[in-house]
Amino acid sequence: MVWDTCTIVLHGGSNGVYFTNDIITGSVVLELKQKRKVEQMYLKVTGITKAMWSRPSPTLPYIKIYSQQKKVLDISMDVFKELQAQTVKPGIMSCQFDFMLPADLPPTYKDSVAKVYYRIIMTSKNAFKIKSKHVIPFIVMNSLNINHIREYKIPMVYELQKTFGNSAKFLLTLKTYRGFASTQEIPFEAILTNENKIKVNKISVALIQKVDYNVSSGYYSSEKTVCKTEYIEILNLAKQICMFSLEVPLVIPSTINQRDPMVDISYALQVKVNFLFHLPLYTDIPVTVASVPVSHDIFYK
Fold this sequence. Notes:
The structure is a single chain. The chain is an all-beta fold. Helix content is 0%, strand content 62%. It has 2 domains: 5-141, Immunoglobulin-like; 150-290, Immunoglobulin-like, CATH 2.60.40. The chain has strands at residues 5-10, 17-19, 23-32, 36-56, 63-78, 86-88, 91-100, 109-110, 114-126, 131-141, 156-164, 168-176, 179-181, 185-193, 200-215, 218-231, 239-247, 263-275, 281-290.
């Protein structure tokens, strides 16, 4: 080995998370306890995205595998230049480094189908061609600010309508926002127009994360419920106004401005009205989840 101990320290970041467009600074600290001949030292920053899944096939081997791996970040830096091809005395030495995260990087991600991960690798080689390697991971989040887009700042109104029999009608008018960030609380105003007083059990709104996986040989998609809220205090009235809200947990922002993403993440609010004796009424409202809190206009006027 070239070194006895190697430590890589990253500066800044928020709880170890770094955003696209950030400039990351750090330092490498090496300790040598005896004299050694150094042949080469370099620092690499890498990002890998990969996906794999299988599907039944009508022919042998009856299972088709879809998989791909590609490098999304590859930065090499010469560190400790003064030590290259030198015999280094025992001691502790440090070197500073910095690099920028491109704007179109995919965020760190992991599930049963795909993985996106980032690492910093310190590598050295001595005069006997023996390599030493030290690896640390770091987390990347895509920086997404939608405050400049008006439609994400103002409340939007949606209508859901259902007819029962020949004449009985039910109308839900829902007001909410289409854009928000993690940890924001999203309000809802639901106006029920129910002149025939059809029995309604509850109104539910769920934030759904939709993931599209794209590899060169195929396509796959999945979705899951991130969080959910319900309103159950529904009265037997011809018209009722229901006020409730949904607190958004920490999630990966929507995929925007990424070229051919292998993992494409989007979101929707799934609105559902449950009736006592009838099939439910539901719709999906596409929404955008940002990394910067959205400065919404006034909701209640």
